[in-house]
Sequence to fold (461 residues):
Amino acid sequence: MRRAVGPFAVFALAALVSGSEAADWPSFRGPNGTGVVTDAKPPLSWGTDKNVAWKAAVPGVAWSCPIVIGDKVFLTTAFAEGQQRPKAGGGFGGGGKGGGFGKGERGAPKETYQFKVVCLDRKTGKTVWEKTAKEARPTIPTHGSNTFATETPVSDGERVYAYFGMTGLYCYDLAGKEIWKKDIGSYSMQAGWGTASSPVLAGDKLVVQCDNEEKSFLVAFDKLTGKEAWKTERREKSGWATPFVWKTKDRTDVVAQGGQKVRGYNPADGKQVWELEVGGGQASATPTGDAERLFVGVGAGGFGGKGGGAGVRAAGTLFAVKAGATGDITPKAGEATSAGVLWSAPRAWPAAASPLLYEGYVYVLDRNGGTVTALDAKTGKAAYTKERIPQAGAFWASPWAAAGHIFCLDETGATHVLKAGAEFEVVRVNKLARDMYWSTPAAADGALFVRGLDALYCVKE
Fold:
């Protein structure tokens, strides 16, 4: 999730992008996968009849996030005749049962789906082209609140890469011509909950994390040809977090989140560089970081397995990993730091929305509690802990930052705008039409692209 949503909201994409313009938003959470807007700032205030440039309906249902390249906006979707809407409330880790999408069936749906990549005009929202990557029955079931197009596409500025879970990986040029496609296999997911982890770009490689109940692995493809570059087996079971491409002054790591452990890999050959035991919980939120520190943790929840050890090795802890870490950096029992861990903060778990690093603080949203925690990025000391945002719904989308503010989109379409810094302050609430909003928006060139279940909105002064 970003995620993923349920464990897939969030779905977080991080990319080392070559060829993209500064005003592009080529992956979930932007060019660096951090959710920080660095070009022209989007508006601070909007509503159903204020600062909405256009609204576009997209057939089918999906939690994949929009990306923006040049004058185009790209989305994915999955469409079937008679398909039902995802169900709000509950989600993953909340007692929901796995089964067919929207139907509670045990097996994969019997309906034939069209798995589509859609290109819209950035200025008008009109469809430029749409391509059906595949038309087939889904190979696995998914939870009633998940979709069959939850993974967010990623672009290098010249090509768009779309991954539909256990259905396939597809590469198109910006005009909609298919360049290559890959079938990386189909594997069962825990409780029939479906998939969410999105592909990322690390230099000239496209990386996919496929953690499942049968045969988990991390795999990299040549972004131009689709030829497999390397494949690394993983011991983790089902997970929904997107890898984070962590670029420091000395090297680049592909960070893969797991319910038991977080691991850093060399993007050149897929070899493991470091690992951190996080205790066993929901691997849903994507890490974030800068050139000095990585911020990572799993949501509190039992389905990831029990943690082995005491101290900070328990689900619900947020860790700050030091750049240059190698080997096993797990703190010893009863200790909060190690040679590779700068600090750890218990009960600061990122449940579904990914953590946000902005102007010296790390912000973490609680999924169902409508609360936010702010930690000093250098020390881990809490500026405030689990402050309740008035009338906030559940947070599945990841927060973003711009112009000294933190933006938190809840599932009802209300964006709660907080003042960045050590003091908790809600400065305004912006509401769009009531719908389900589990996708994280994209921001580019002064515009914000917000996807609900029924439509995509362009918010712009």
Summary: The two ends are 29 Å apart (CA to CA). DSSP finds no helices and 35 strands in the chain.
